[in-house]
Amino acid sequence: MIMGISFGRGVLFHDRDVLACAEVKNGVIHVWAEEMTLKTILKLWYRIFFSFPWYYQLFHLVLVAYVVASLINPSWSFINPAWVAIYVAGFHFVFPRGLKKFHGAEHKVFSYGGKKSLDAIDKIARADIVNAGCSTNLVVWFFIGFLLTILFLPVEWSLACGAAALLGGMLGDRFLRKYCGFAYKLSAFFQRHVTTKEPDRLHLETAIRSYILFEHMRDRDRQAA
Question: How far apart are CA 216 and CA 200, in angstroms?
């Protein structure tokens, strides 16, 4: 199964065996690929966490410090630190602008049914920006569980209900798509209007190069096997 991850400077595509990345540095697209190892996973998360604008980094550092301080001495907390987890769960809704464009480019590459190539970039640009398998689906399920319970349960219990709904959305995807289509329509709305933006040519080319490299690595491994 091919999965895509967008971050502030580029796009990753991976399966269980290989990861391919294309990222923009000083206006130039750089590509790299590695076999999937613990080191590669750490490299992936490093790319994700440290590609946000400085003000996101500062805000997140403040949040981490607040949670740690609240755990050390609960009397120092003025807002329940569980709300930080709610922010993390809803981070899709506050993606930086550049990340939204890379996210949109990733979705368009997935949506385009033809061979992914730079020659097809104009066709890919016209592809649907909504991806049926986007993680926004799980974010929607989390907030369904959370919002349905927050009015009559403590925030910690509502957080747990949101996590349970997210897990249900993950494990029961096929069943829920059949009987709870409203949630996926809501996810599609958020994808189209909130969690993505129409990508520029640079974002599209980055996503396409990442996918081409992923296909090359996957095909190479298959031939070697």
Answer: 25
